[in-house]
Specification:
With about 240 residues, the protein is an alpha/beta fold. The protein has a single domain, classed as HUPs (Rossmann fold, 3-Layer(aba) Sandwich), CATH 3.40.50.620. Helix content is about 40%, strand content about 10%. The chain is built from nine helices and six strands, in the order H-H-H-E-H-E-H-E-H-H-H-E-E-E-H. It has a six-stranded mixed beta sheet. Helix 4 links the parallel strand 1 and strand 2. Helix 3 packs across helix 4. The protein is globular. The protein binds iron/sulfur cluster (SF4). The site of iron/sulfur cluster has 13 residues, from helix 8.
Length: about 240
């Protein structure tokens, strides 16, 4: 059986993504994911930071055993690894953990300690961007949990778009959801969430680059706080 990525050229995929972005703008998250599974089959995966398992849960309702890709940077909070383990244990998904080429100790030996403080863009490239690029090689399309209400940089996120950097279809089935929509879905379906969300964190990344948010700050204000950096390079 041929896969979606073997059947279609890059131009085909790009046109398909842009058309779907228009057609599915008002569709529900489940309808968007159903389109992704129907269109790409095994060439589709969900990526999860294990902040919560909302998109993984939605996707597993459409496709049992769906691939859920998690980036283990080596710098995660224990709660994040625990959430990954719990998702693997109780949900009908196939968790795939990607790791950087170097351990933190190997990176420290080559670049010096605490690269995240001195050059977070390089650290993110080595520990997030490159592993994801390797991990996505066999997929034509990937889903994320990006939402427009999270920050200004995410305000124009399409529900389906073209990931120019990776030449893949990028699907954000809950782009139009608000935090209340997420909270309602979690409560209704008993979805696993990272315990840090109950402890003052509204966005959970690597431990050295994440702090609790203050009142009135946007949900991602605790990421790389005090720096101009707002994204890790996975989404821009
Ligand atoms: S978020 Fe921080 S620790 Fe994690 S990869 Fe990026 S710079 Fe490194």
């Amino acid at each position: 059986m041929t896969t979606a990525q073997e059947d279609r050229t890059t131009d085909d995929l790009k046109a398909l993504a842009e058309q779907a972005g228009r057609d599915l703008e008002d569709a529900s998250a489940l309808e968007i994911l159903q389109w992704a599974v129907d269109t790409f089959g095994k060439g589709f995966c969900v990526t999860s930071s294990m902040e919560d398992a909302v998109v993984a849960h939605l996707a597993s309702r459409v496709q049992k055993g769906v691939d859920v890709v998690f980036l283990d940077t080596g710098y995660h909070f224990p709660e994040t690894i625990g959430t990954r383990d719990a998702v693997e244990a109780v949900m009908d998904v196939n968790v795939i953990t990607l790791t950087p080429r170097q351990t933190v100790a190997e990176q420290d030996a080559e670049y010096g300690p605490k690269l995240h403080d001195r050059d977070p863009d390089l650290c993110c490239r080595l520990r997030k961007v490159q592993p994801l690029e390797r991990g996505l090689k066999n997929y034509a399309a990937w889903a994320t949990g990006l939402r427009r209400d999270e920050s200004e940089t995410r305000a124009n996120t399409p529900v389906v778009g073209w990931d120019e950097k990776r030449q893949k279809v990028k699907i954000s089935p809950i782009a139009r959801w608000t935090q209340d929509d997420v909270d309602d879905y979690v409560a209704e379906h008993g979805v696993l969430t990272n315990p840090l969300l109950m402890d003052g964190y509204t966005s959970v990344g690597c431990a050295p680059c994440t702090r609790r948010v203050l009142e009135g700050e946007d949900a991602r204000a605790g990421r790389w706080a005090g720096r101009a950096k707002t994204e890790c390079g996975l989404h821009g």
